[in-house]
Amino acid sequence: MVIDDSETVRIKITQIIKDKGHEVIEAENGQIALDIITKTLDIDFCICDINMPEMDGLTLVEEVRRRDWDKKNLVFVMCTTETSAGHKMKAKELGVRGWLHKPFKNAQIEQLLEFMAKESNS
To answer: Cα separation of 21 and 64, whole Å?
Structure first.
């Protein structure tokens, strides 16, 4: 799942992921993403921005983690312009698995996909 309020960013990440043969669900903010995650069983991981309207990315991760359901261990990677140590610390506490800085290179998303594939096969 790709979660970002920037349509341009969503399109770019989605295209990279689709080019590697994966399906992608998109959401423009954390609230929409939470609604989708609640109803969708087959989300493997989320690439998520932090600063978004309605619900920011870290709040989304908090909401997913605090619920007593099978998705509370869903893998999140933040893709953001944020460099704040506080945001990174909170993300780590919430179990966020990675941090990509915008602007990112296509190869970084491809490496992330390779890492996630290895993780799911472990």
So the answer is: 26
